[in-house]
C-alpha cells in the first residue's frame, strides 16, 4: 500500500494550516512539524506572540489536534543561528543587505525538514508557500512555478530548492488566493483562520536591525563619511547597517537637491550618495546561481527577472559566466539593485533560477 504520509511544516499561521487540511482532503496523511528556530535570548527579548513564539507552536498544535494529525516540534535553533542569523550578521558586516528568509528556506525549512521526514519514513514534505511544483517530461526536470495568485506569489524566496526537494514537495495552497485560504480554514474551524500574516524578519521582530546586530553579533555602529561618487565628503553617517540602497530619508545631509544612498563601501566605511538617476542599473551580476526549472546553461537565456521580492519582473537576457556567476542585462534599467538581495529569473510561469546579487552597473 502506498505511503501517503506528508510532513507539513506548520508555522502556526493560516497558510500551513490550510495546506494540512487540503492534503488531508486529497487523501494524504499529513503529519505536523513545527520548527523551533531560536530562543528568546537569541533575539534579546521575551516574546509571547509572533513568529516562532509559544503562541505559534500552540496554534499549530491546535490545528493538528483539530485535524487528527500527529504533531512534532523540531529544534533547529543551532542550525538556524549558524546558517541564518550568523549569515545575516556577516552580510551586514560586509556592507550587504541580506534576505534571511531565502537562507532559511535553503538550509532549514526544506533541507532539515526533509531529513526529519526521512527519519520518520515519510515520503513527502509540504509547506504553506504560495507557489507550485510540477514535472516537465520534455526536460526531465521538476519545475518551481509561480503561485496562481500573483499578489501572494512566493516563488522568489524558494529558488534554492533542489531537484530532490522539489520531487518530494507538495505546495497545495499555491493554487488558491489568500481570501480563499482564510475561508477554507474558517469553514473547518481552524483557530488561526483570521490570524494576521507575519511581516517582520522573525528574529528581528521590531525591525531594528542595528540593535539586533549590536546585541547578537557584537556589531558596533561606527560613524563614517557620506561621500559622493568622486569621493568628496558630504557629511557623517551613523554606521553602515543603518542604510540601504535607494534610501533618501534620514540621511541628515544638507544639499540643493534630493540625495539617495547609491552604495556602501565596508572597507572605507563610507556611504556613497548620489542622484535618483544614479540608482538605475542595466547589468546585474549574481553569484552562487542555482538553476531550477532549467538545467545549467552555457549560453544566453531570455528571461524576466526581479531583484527584490516585492518588485515587478522586467525582461532581460541571462549570461552564464564562470564559477556559478551569472550576468543579467535588463532591457530597461532597474532601480536600487542591492548587493545581498537575490536576482531571480523566470521563463513564463517557471523559475529559471536565482542567485545573490554581488554587483550592478549602469
Using brief descriptors, characterize the structure shown:
single chain; 362 residues; alpha/beta; Rossmann fold; SH3 type barrels; five-stranded parallel sheet
Radius of gyration: 22 Å
The helix/strand series, from N terminus to C terminus, equals EHEHHEHHHEEEHEHHEEEEEEEEEE
Distance between the termini: 59 Å
Mean pLDDT: 93
Name the CATH class of the domain at 5-129 and 171-187.
Answer: Alpha Beta
Profile the largest sheet.
Answer: 6 strands, antiparallel, barrel
Full CATH superfamily name of the domain at 5-129 and 171-187 = HUPs
Question: What does the model show?
Answer:
- A hairpin with a 5-residue loop joins β8 and β9 (233-237).
- This protein is globular.
- Helix content is 25%, strand content 30%.
- The chain contains nine helices and 17 strands.
- Among the domains are: 5-129 and 171-187, 3-Layer(aba) Sandwich (Rossmann fold), CATH 3.40.50; 221-274, Adenine nucleotide alpha hydrolases-like domains (SH3 type barrels).
- The protein has a six-stranded antiparallel beta barrel with strand order 12-15-14-13-16-17. It has a five-stranded parallel beta sheet with strand order 3-2-1-4-7, sandwiched between helices.
- By secondary structure, it is α/β, with parallel strands linked by helices.
Amino acid at each position: 500500500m502506498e505511503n501517503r504520509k506528508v510532513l507539513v511544516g506548520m508555522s502556526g499561521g493560516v497558510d500551513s494550516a490550510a495546506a494540512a487540511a487540503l492534503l488531508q482532503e486529497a487523501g494524504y496523511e499529513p503529519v505536523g512539524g513545527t520548527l523551533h528556530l531560536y530562543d528568546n535570548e537569541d533575539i534579546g527579548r521575551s516574546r509571547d506572540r509572533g513568529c516562532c513564539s509559544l503562541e505559534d507552536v500552540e496554534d499549530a498544535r491546535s490545528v493538528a489536534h483539530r485535524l487528527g494529525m500527529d504533531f512534532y516540534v523540531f529544534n533547529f535553533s543551532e542550525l538556524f543561528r549558524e546558517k541564518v542569523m550568523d549569515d545575516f550578521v556577516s552580510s551586514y558586516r560586509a556592507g550587504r543587505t541580506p534576505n534571511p528568509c531565502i537562507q532559511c528556506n535553503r538550509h532549514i525549512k526544506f533541507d532539515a525538514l526533509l531529513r526529519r521526514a526521512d527519519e520518520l519514513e515519510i515520503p513527502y514534505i509540504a509547506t504553506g508557500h504560495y507557489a507550485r511544483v510540477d514535472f516537465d517530461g520534455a526536460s526531465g526536470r521538476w519545475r518551481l512555478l509561480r503561485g496562481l495568485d500573483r499578489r501572494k506569489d512566493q516563488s522568489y524566496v524558494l529558488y534554492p530548492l533542489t531537484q530532490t526537494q522539489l520531487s518530494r514537495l507538495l505546495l497545495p495552497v499555491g493554487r488558491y488566493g489568500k481570501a480563499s485560504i482564510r475561508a477554507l480554514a474558517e469553514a473547518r474551524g481552524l483557530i488561526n483562520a483570521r490570524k494576521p500574516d507575519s511581516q517582520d524578519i522573525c528574529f528581528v521582530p521590531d525591525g531594528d536591525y542595528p540593535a539586533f546586530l549590536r546585541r547578537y553579533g557584537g556589531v558596533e555602529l561606527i560613524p563614517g563619511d557620506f561621500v559622493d561618487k568622486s569621493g568628496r565628503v558630504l557629511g557623517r553617517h551613523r554606521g553602515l547597517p543603518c542604510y540601504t540602497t535607494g534610501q533618501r530619508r534620514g540621511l541628515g545631509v544638507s544639499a540643493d537637491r534630493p540625495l539617495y544612498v547609491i552604495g556602501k563601501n565596508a572597507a572605507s566605511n563610507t556611504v556613497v550618495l548620489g542622484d535618483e538617476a544614479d540608482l538605475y542599473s542595466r547589468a546585474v551580476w549574481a553569484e552562487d546561481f542555482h538553476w531550477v526549472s532549467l538545467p545549467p546553461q552555457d549560453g544566453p537565456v531570455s528571461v524576466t527577472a526581479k531583484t527584490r521580492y516585492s518588485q515587478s519582473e522586467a525582461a532581460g537576457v541571462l549570461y552564464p559566466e564562470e564559477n556559478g556567476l551569472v550576468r543579467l542585462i535588463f532591457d530597461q534599467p532597474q532601480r536600487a539593485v542591492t548587493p545581498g538581495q537575490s536576482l531571480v529569473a523566470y521563463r513564463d510561469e517557471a523559475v529559471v533560477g536565482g542567485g545573490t546579487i554581488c554587483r550592478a552597473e549602469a
